[in-house]
């Protein structure tokens, strides 16, 4: 009797083939995914299937909307603050360039008036001229370092200023020797200053005024918040849709998210609007006053130089007197705009002194006209103009400093608010996920 046959199973190592005909190799992972086990598409389809799937999809869109609102709000705050900083920097450059303009014409006014005395000018006049030219040199260097965009123009300006200074020194040397050619050198220096140097300064001032104006406009970046408003509307629409589908009209988490984002959007809009309004007030107030006072100072010093040049040319300075009258009109117009009684009174005193100078010169009393023009007595033109120049320069400096200080003080809290708004947006995103998750669980 033979023993019964027993089929003993043979263990086949994992990953090995039995080699028997018809034996299938082990399934690979790829085969599993493409076979009975659902792949990524199947998982996504199941997650997005039916009303729970749409809840998940809309919840994702709600998170995106919350994050987008936070990002746009934070960016708008930072953009406003950056625009104010750039406006302050450009305004400071305007003040520097205007100071250069004023000091160039002040130096010319001092040089031409000192030239009338003949021989060696007084130590006081020499010191005032050198102080003005020193401020011009340092101002050009500072302005070039502060605003690289103006570097090339300021480099050319420095060369033109050196040419002017060299001609003045030649005029001074010849004047000390009593040589008439000194007057020609001085006339050439003044003409070259106005034809070659002053236009460069004017262009630099204009360029930075334009930059400041553009940054004043950019400081109010509230238009960016329209994206945030649309995001908030989307979240409200999500809440309405969810209420209709689930018949649960209050979702505390989703409502909390909307409330947080609404507050964040309101605070952002209020802050940006406040920054824009404040910078606009500065632009129309202190900044405009600084520009106007600078224009007055430059026109007044140009007038003073033209007064001296008219006398230097002795009978052939009609063109300079015409320029003086043009400068006077400019000063009068700007002073009327400012309505500063003190400056108006001081300018009137100088105008009266100038008219006396012209009356003496036109009457053939040139020496007396020169004495009155260079006199530091009470009614002397040097005295009356000096008083006005000191007062208007102080007013201009104060207005310029106030403008820059006020601008630098704007938007200081914007970076902190941007961080807070970002954190609020993240918290709102979590609340959106939580609120949608609760409804999905209830729906099941």
UniProtKB/TrEMBL annotation:
Keywords from the UniProt entry: Membrane, Transmembrane, Transmembrane helix
Positions of transmembrane segments: 57-78, 223-242, 254-275, 416-437
Region span, Disordered: 1-27
Biased composition regions of type Low complexity, renumbered to the chain: 13-22
Protein name: Secreted protein
Organism: Terrabacter tumescens
